[in-house]
Amino acid sequence: xxxxxxxxxxxxxxxxxxxxxxxxxxxxxxxxxxxxxxxxxxxxxxxxxxxxxxxxxxxxxxxxxxxxxxxxxxxxxxxxxxxxxxxxxxxxxxxxxxxxxxxxxxxxxxxxxxxxxxxxxxxxxxxxxxxxxxxxxxxxxxxxxxxxxxxxxxxxxxxxxxxxxxxxxxxxxxxxxxxxxx
Length: 182
Prior knowledge:
56% of the residues lie in helices and 8% in strands.
């Protein structure tokens, strides 16, 4: 069932498949399905953001915003120091001030530390930050992974969706550059 109570394959009186979208005015012409996908991205983004903040709160850090959670996880990734520019690049954040603010917040909470390396600062998780991530992982396993079944449990399908999302991000990044030059 969809959010509006209809079957996903529901049709209107004319026999056309009903689309679930927020901007019908964008769903006409070539690639009309893109508007349907964009609405899916919107609601998935908001649900994911809400989920990681609440998961982190359940793990013991209720004061972290979405960006803070993403930065903490990425800084911990592979347990290697990360430069500000690399964090921004990997998470696809254009504004380094947002990530820098998050790093300062996380450092103030004792979850990350910055260490000077030449002209750069490399950020890494502290023992407390690593322990918080372990608790997040436990909550994730209990609340999210336990619910994954059916088509969503197929690792190859999930990898394909992830690959397609990365392709779409490139498409939107290129479109943003084009729009900036108008």
